[in-house]
Amino acid sequence: MENMDIGNHNLKRPHLAEDTSEYEGVKKPKLSELLSAETTKNGGEAGQNRGSLNALSDEKRDSDKEEDDEDIAILEEEEENEDDFADMMKHGLTEADVGITQFVSSHPGFSGILKERYSDFVVHEISKNGKMCHLDDLSVPVDKEDPPEDVFTVLSDEDKQHLEELQLFKNKEGSVSIEVKEDTKEKRTVIHHAIKLLFPGLETKTEEKDGRKYIVAYHAAGKKALAKVKTVADPRKHSWPKNRGSYCHFVLYKENKDTMDAINVLSKFLRVKPNIFSYMGTKDKRAITVQQIAVLKITAQRLSHLNKCLMNFKLGNFSYEKHPLKLGELHGNHFTVVLRNINGTDEEVNQAMTSLKDTGFINYYGMQRFGTTAVPTYQVGRAILQNKWNDVMDLILKPRPGAEKSCLVQCREEWAKTKDPDAALKKLPWKRCVEGQLLRGLSKYGVKNIVTAFGIIPRNNRLMYIHSYQSYVWNNIVSKRVAEYGLKVVPGDLVLKGATAVVLTEEDVDSYTVHDVVMPLPGYDVIYPTSKIGEAYKNMLTEDGLDICNMRHKIKDYSLAGAYRKVVIRPSDVSWEMVSYDDPKIPLVHTDADKLEGRPEPVFVKEGKYRALKMEFSLPPSTYATMAIREVLKMDTSIKNQTQLNTVWLR
């Protein structure tokens, strides 16, 4: 998974203005109000506030009502408690806390504002064939198998609500009747088609009552039909052309939303499970990002209708393929970054950017790898590896300094007071956070069976803790290596020959540069440098109660194989320019959406009030753009540090 680590950072200087939507003065409604927005396929606009990205529709209610209630609770509480985030960050981590201490360049650095607006950070995915992903075509592939357009608009919101309740057996009645007000055979055919297409598992028939025609929807196979509805492929199996690829690939352009949240929104509008979507990498929230997505047996026609009602999303460049997308298949990401209010001279900026282009930056794991609260994720990972399960439970559930959502604070306090998982769970309006999942496990399996209870958390989330610890060790040891040897290649360093790491001898070192040197993440299937840096690995793990020679865990999932990571990364396609502007609210990047909608390119002035550095560069997967920007500015990019400098950026 590539990581951009793009939290909103104000570097050395206060914000000039709040980050607002491009259309000023539009009040953002709460999620509960947005739930009455127009549905996906009725063609109506769900609103004009381009900055309001959380719009969900009545058209999709999850089969489990509790999940919908949790979504509302989570998102509304996030809206109400953003101001508290500043206090929470005061207790967060600095770069030094996670081993990020060294630089490779000699320039003095300068100040600037990173991500004053989310539109100051634009990311385009680079596919495995090296092509940059752009949204430049909203047309739908012509396919005679596709239903007519009115299939998506013929049913009212109320009809769709009743049909969904019937489909999921929430309707006490055994059928739903829809009156055909403009009775023609063509109109009835469209309604029949719409119900069967949008509500798999339902059958329809035409009935006449009191001289009026009705389309009656009903279950053909009782609750067996519901079981089929819940499978991944079956709902669309009967209507999918055999000669068409099973996956619709499309480009997703999104603003100020992370990839998983975006897919959850798409799935709710389409009334499908999120797991039918696939992608090559996740993109973080506070940015404009463009990436490839694939979805199983959803037509481009249906997807294109989302453009009419989703704000700050655009879908296009549709094609049908035989395969999904896989994590890690991408070649990398291309970044366009604006640093506002630059105070460095042109000479200082050129020196910094030339160093980034020619030398690069230390390939540290960025701050997002370690969490945003007072309990870093690497501490939990270390406790797992130490087999200290009471510590794991305590680190996740104990009260912690800094502001959190009030219900989570109450949950932690209840747990500290009673050690009763059921009592603590009652304080949470949602149960899908890590704390809620662990408490559910403890309630189900008992507080003495922590290992099994912890296992209820999704595997990827559990492994995140261990990977965080590996990253923590890597950062610290790489800092020692750079402090000790700088950019020299020395005997005992490791390089990769193919997929195999080899140790360099005195005779080898002149044949390599620091850009070839790799260092291992600790594990049972890696070798370590034979210089004093190898001893540093051993000492650090020994201090943490771990044996570097035995990184296998009693529980197979938590055994670490290890991996190799380059010490210094040199970005490609590096370019930059200094621009001047007078209005701090204007966007300084011409996006794909701007081009599609015919908006003019930003106009810069010769002698403006403010100066900005506009830079572009490409990075391989699993590298952090903020670590490259850190090297340019010579600044601690942690949110804690920036919050202490200025909390205005949070607004």
The general outline is: globular
Largest sheet: 10 strands, mixed
Number of continuous helical runs: 21
Cα(first) to Cα(last) distance is 29 Å
Can you tell me the residue ranges where pLDDT is under 50 for at least 5 consecutive residues? 1-83, 223-238, 646-651
Number of strands: 19
Cα gyration radius (Å): 27 Å
Helix coverage percent: 25-40%
The averaged pLDDT comes out at 81
Structural class of the secondary elements? alpha+beta
Percent of sequence in beta strands: 15-25%
Detailed description of the structure:
The chain is an alpha+beta fold and 651 residues long. Helices cover 31% and strands 17% of the residues. The strands form four sheets. Strands 1, 2, 3, 7, 8, 9, 10, 11, 18 and 19 form a ten-stranded mixed beta sheet that branches. A four-stranded antiparallel beta sheet has the order 14-13-15-16. A three-stranded antiparallel beta sheet has the order 4-6-5, with helices on one face. Helix 10 packs across helix 20 (625-633), helix 11 packs antiparallel against helix 12 (389-397) and helix 11 (377-385) packs across helix 17 (459-485). The longest helix has 27 residues, at 459-485. It starts with 8 loop residues before the first strand and ends in a 6-residue tail after the last helix.
